[in-house]
Amino acid sequence: MAVHSPRDPVKDTSLTATSESPGGRGQSVKCPVLRARGITKSYKRGIWPRRRDLLVLTGTDLELCAGEIVGLVGENGSGKSTLMKILVGALDADAGTVETAGRVGYCPQEPLLYERLTCEEHMQLFGVAYEMNADSASASAESLYDSLGFGRWRDSQVVELSGGTKAKLNLALALLPDPDLLLLDEPYAGFDWDTYQRFWDITAQRRDAGRSVLVVSHFVTDQQRFDRLVEMRDGRAWPR
Amino acid sequence: MTILIARKALADYARRPLNLVLLVAVPVVMVVALQGQLASFSKLLSTVTKPTHLEVATAGWAAAVVAGLAGFFQVVGSRDTDRRLATVSGRGSGPVVAGRLLASAALAAAAAAAALAALAARGGIADPARAVPTILVVAVIYVAIGVLAATAVHSEMNGALIVTTVCLLDVFVGSGLGGGSSLVTRFFPLHFPTMILTSQAANHAGPVGDVGWTAIWMVGLTTVAIARLVVTTRPSTHRKRAQAIATVTASATGSTAVLPAPVGPDSPVSPFKAKPAPVPATSRRLRLPSSHLGAGLLAAAREYRRNRVLWALLVIVPVSFIGLAAAQTPPTPMPVSLVDGARQFTTMLSLRHIHAAEMASIATALLAGVAGLFVITGSASGDRRLVLSGFRPRQVLASRLGVIVGAAVLTTAVSLTVSAAFFSPRFWVEYAGAELLIALTYAMVGVLLGPLIGRLGGLYLLLLLSIVDAGYGQTVMFHPSPPGWGAFLPARGAGRLLLDGAFTTGFEQYGHLLLALGWLAVLIAAALATFKHQTGMQPIRHLSAVPAGDRPPNTNIDVTEEKSCATRAIPPKPTLPA
Question: Looking at chain A from residue 106 to 125, which residues have their Cβ under 8 Å from any Cβ of chain B?
Answer without folding.
Answer: 106, 108, 110, 112-118, 120-121, 124-125
